[in-house]
Each structure stands twice: as structure tokens, then as C-alpha cells.
Write a sequence for this structure.
């Protein structure tokens, strides 16, 4: 069955624009509207009944628990969850846990009491015991992005270690001789996997020392602080692999402030593929996770469980992709060799 | 009573850091932790019982309905709502409506059926009739940011028209001779108020023509598209007031792509005060709304209504502030006149 995402892709517009056409909202120009309508016809796309009114519909609701609403990666996952949920007439409640265990526990309790239909959870803190009351209440749970080590739950994640390897190999390929890593907090499995990917490559080189890893929070401020320390401790680094894109944004800002040219003095690669990495000068090379697809896959898995279409648990590990941009295009302004 | 925000301010750290100290999470260095503890003692701050465990607590839940989770302005409002809610032992469900009327209606119905305690809503579509079922169910509602014209609800908003006037007067003061406006969709009262503020000033000038206003969506892509049209239609514009910061980010990106120097060819001012405006080169001048405080005020009003401490409706209009940055600092690199 075609999804709203397929229509958007076929018409070369955003999902929001397709939504606007379906709902006859403002500010879709005629030409775009026509493209969307043609794409809907070609793909035999039927907007869900929810999209066209609520008459007689059962109100289903799933929850998505995210650790940090201010990191665009998580709203990106939510976008995928929400579009699939809409397709199947589900509402989505977002629960922003701030990665705090007590907030997560509180949400789990309230979701159970409010008889939510299902839950997609992104968490480092929650374990099987804490999810047991939901299992008892017959509320299915899918683990997204940061699964705990557990066989009884379906998991959707991306290949974090592979992505880190791609980042470091790219920095080596463009000629970097000493590559540092801004690592996220060790309690996050995603941060650990990316750090391990980095170490797996660089530990083979004589220039490697553990002081090339700087831990920080997965945010802009974390990236800034880590760069300050890295540059002070390692005067000769010429490449940085940041553990996520927010860190990379902070790192770029701080490198410019320190008078470094990016990429010629220090090349920079992030991780996630959030669109903010395209707004900076230079734009930031990154390892793109299939963010929307991860959210969509988690929602589809949950809804199929709810409908009884699948009963087994499964792990879906999605591939990541290197997106090369200005922050690693060393010497791009030099004339081509003739 | 001191709030977690007061503690953060006194300690010179973020609210998240104070949360980490309270909850003994990782990655707070000793020095920072000490600062936070001292600030908590000086302010006689008591973390809410929720912050220290859930034993015996009633589970209260409010909902916050936002139109666009991908615009950091709304997560910023959510931050203020959530911190106050936590202080009073309330959970917050976020409902991302994508500004679609049918999603909002669906959420209103589900929130009523799930017996949510109260609702803060940011919407252009919802009217008094649609909120009537919540009123009948004794679920109080506070309107945030984009109120409809209604006396029966408490409202928290900022002074949008004044902010627009400040933006245009600033652009005039730095010597702009022809100022364009990228306006948000007319259906948003915030967009209309900002456009009216702009027109109120510029309509006095002989250079003003209506082609200096370009409407677009309140997002990065909208800013890019509008700039392309404005520059094509008005070759001599030297200042742009963008209706929100996402548009300003897109506008800056596009201006650079078109080979324009910002601010020397075209100066640029946004509206909202989201932190992304500090990440670009140049950083973007903006009209800063008190985003966190707006969210906090809405939550406090709702919770006081729930506790029966206030019964009347009131309108809280918060002031905005001009934040001058590189995108309007024309000729900054020139030597000072002697």
C-alpha cells in the first residue's frame, strides 16, 4: 500500500505539502497541488479515513517516548511514527522524558492507567522489569534507536558501529593524519557503538592516543566544550568525528571561533543526518541515519503487533549512509590538476 | 517558591544540568555539581516529590498541543510547560497536530476520553465550539501563542506587533533604505500581527510597495523560496525582516547562495529567538520572545485553574526583545572613525 511518504517522494514535495493538499489547507500553489494529485492517482493512494473526518472511528492511541525533544533527530523519528500512525487511524502522544529515569517511570505508569494501546520507547534507563506492568496489561512495546539487551521486544535501530567506521575511513581517505572523536555519554548504547567503531579503526595507527577521545553531552554545548579541550590537548589534530550532529554543529561553531579553517585545518564529520547540518558554512558531512524510516518501521511493527499480524519479536537494523559536504572537502577551492 | 529555573540561573547552568544533579545522572563535573547544590540551598529549593520518586503520588496529566514539533520554538515552549508541570507533579503529553484541523479534533476527543486533567493548546483552527466538550467535562484549557478571539479562555502570548515594529525600526536605524518582509501564512494571528507591525512603519516611506511582502510557510524552505522571489522582484532591497527564525535561517542560506553579503548587501532580522540563530555565520539578529517563560506561564495558569486558585480568565502578553547580532551589523569590519 502506498503511504503519504511515497506520494511526497513521487511528487518531489514534502510530506507536509501532501497533507496540505489532502486537507485543502492554504499555501499550496496550483502546480504543486497538481503534481501531488497526479502522484496520488498513480500510486492509488487513499488518505486514511482519519484524514477525511472522524465519523464513527474508534480512537486508537499509541505513545512515543523520546529522550530529548530539542534534538531534531527525535522529532524526525516522531515524523515517521506519526505518518504511519495516521495511516492506520492512530493518534500519537509524545512523552519527552529528558532521559530521566523517574520521568520515564512516571510516564509508563500513566500510559498504563490511561489504557494507551501501544508504546514505542527510546530509552537508556528502562529495563524489562519496568516494562512488565505493560506486558501484563497487554500493551505491546517496541524499542527504538537505543534498545536494552533484551530478546522479548522488537527493536528498530540503525547500524551505529558501521556508521562510525564509515566516518573515520572517510576522514582518513581525505588525508587526515590525526583524528579525534567527540563521544556521547557512555550510558547510551548508540554512543558506545560509535566510539567502538572509531576505536576499531584508529587503534591501528601509531598516532592514536586515548586523549583523542573527549566525552560530552549529545548537544551543541557538548560539542563546543569538547572541541576546546581537544584542540588544547592535541595541537595537531586535523580531523574530528563528532558522535552526533548537534555536537558537530557546536564543534564547527567553536572551531571557527578558535580561528580554525574547516575543513583545511580540521575536517569534521557528524552523525545522524539532521537537516541543520545543511545550514552552516561549510555544510557538515555526516553519517545519515534513515531517521524517518526508523520511526515508520517502529510504528508499523507496533501496529502489526496490535492487529495480531505479527507475534514474534524481531530486530530491524537499518543501514546508514555517508553524506559528503563541505566540512570534509579539503582544498576544494584549489584549481583542478591538469 | 524557587523553581528549577531559578536554581539554574543562580548556578549559571542549564535546567537540564540541575535535573542531572538532582537525579544523580552522569556527566556533571564536581565543580558544577557543587555550584548547583549551593544554589539550591541558597534559594531553599526543594525538588518536587516526583523528582525523587513516585511513592503514593496521584498521577496528574496535562496535554500540550503544538502545531510543529520540528520548529524549535515549540519544543522551547514545551520545556517551560514541562518544568512547571514537573514542579507540581504533572505529566505532560505532547500532541503534534501539524496544524491540521482534523488531527486537532481527533486529539481533543481522545484527550477528553482519556480524562486528561487540563490542556494547553497552540492552534489556529480550534474554536470555542470545538472546545465545548472539554468545558462540559470540566477540563480547563489555556490558549498559548496563537489565541482565537475569545473571552472565555486564559491566554498567554507575546507582543508580536511590537516586536515587528522593533525589527523594522532597527533595520532603518542601521541605514536600510528598502526593507522587505517574509510573512508567515495569513491564517496565523502571529503572522498577521507581525505583518501589520511591518506595514505600520514602512507604509510611511515612498519606497514601499506591496511587492516587498512575500508570503511563505513558517519554515526554512519557506525562507529560501521567499528570498529568491524577493531578490528577483526587488533588485535594490537592502534589508529583510523574516516573520520567524526558521524563515530567517532559510533566507540567510539562500542569500549566501545568491552571492549576497549579509549584512553589507542585505541585512536580516528574524523573529522568535531560537538558539539556532546563533549557529550561523553571521549570527542572526532576532526579536526574542520569552519562549521558556511563555510555556511556564501557560502551565502555571492551567495548574492554578486546576487547583481552583484562579477562576477568572486573563490575558498575559509578554514583552519581546531585540537581540542584535552579525546579520545586521553593517560594516562592522571597517575601522572606527577617528
Amino acid at each position: 500500500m502506498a503511504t503519504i511518504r511515497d506520494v511526497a517522494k513521487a511528487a518531489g514535495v514534502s510530506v507536509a505539502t501532501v497533507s496540505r493538499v489532502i486537507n485543502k489547507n492554504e499555501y499550496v500553489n496550483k502546480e504543486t497541488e497538481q503534481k501531488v494529485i497526479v502522484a496520488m492517482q498513480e500510486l492509488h493512494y487513499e488518505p486514511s479515513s482519519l484524514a477525511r473526518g472522524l465519523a464513527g472511528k474508534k480512537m486508537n492511541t499509541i505513545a512515543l517516548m523520546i529522550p530529548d525533544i530539542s534534538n531534531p533527530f527525535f522529532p524526525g523519528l516522531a515524523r515517521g511514527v506519526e505518518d504511519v500512525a495516521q495511516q492506520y487511524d492512530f493518534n500519537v502522544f509524545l512523552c519527552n522524558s529528558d532521559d530521566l529515569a523517574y520521568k520515564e517511570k512516571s510516564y509508563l505508569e500513566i500510559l498504563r492507567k490511561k489504557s494507551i494501546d501501544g508504546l514505542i520507547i527510546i530509552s537508556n534507563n528502562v529495563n524489562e522489569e519496568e516494562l512488565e506492568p505493560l506486558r501484563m496489561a497487554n500493551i505491546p512495546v517496541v524499542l527504538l534507536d537505543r534498545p536494552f539487551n533484551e530478546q522479548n521486544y522488537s527493536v528498530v535501530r540503525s547500524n551505529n558501529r558501521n556508521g562510525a567506521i564509515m566516518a573515520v575511513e572517510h576522514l582518513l581517505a581525505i588525508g587526515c593524519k590525526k583524528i579525534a572523536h567527540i563521544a556521547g555519554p557512555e550510558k547510551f548504547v548508540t554512543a558506545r557503538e560509535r566510539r567502538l567503531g572509531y576505536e576499531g579503526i584508529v587503534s591501528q595507527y601509531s598516532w592514536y592516543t586515548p586523549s583523542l577521545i573527549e566525552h560530552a553531552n549529545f548537544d551543541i554545548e557538548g560539542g563546543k566544550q569538547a572541541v576546546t579541550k581537544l584542540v588544547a590537548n592535541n595541537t595537531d589534530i586535523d580531523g574530528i568525528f563528532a558522535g552526533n550532529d548537534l555536537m558537530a554543529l557546536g564543534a564547527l561553531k567553536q572551531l571557527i571561533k578558535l580561528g580554525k579553517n574547516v575543513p583545511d585545518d580540521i575536517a569534521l564529520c557528524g552523525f545522524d543526518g539532521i537537516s541543520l547540518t545543511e545550514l552552516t558554512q561549510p555544510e557538515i558531512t555526516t553519517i545519515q541515519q534513515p531517521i524517518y524510516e526508523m520511526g515508520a518501521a517502529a510504528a508499523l511493527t507496533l501496529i502489526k503487533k496490535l492487529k495480531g499480524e505479527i507475534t514474534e519479536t524481531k530486530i530491524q537494523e537499518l543501514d546508514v549512509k555517508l553524506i559528503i559536504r563541505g566540512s570534509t572537502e579539503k582544498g576544494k577551492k584549489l584549481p583542478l590538476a591538469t
Q: What stands out?
A: The mean pLDDT of chain A is 90. The first strand of chain A starts at residue 60 and ends at 66.
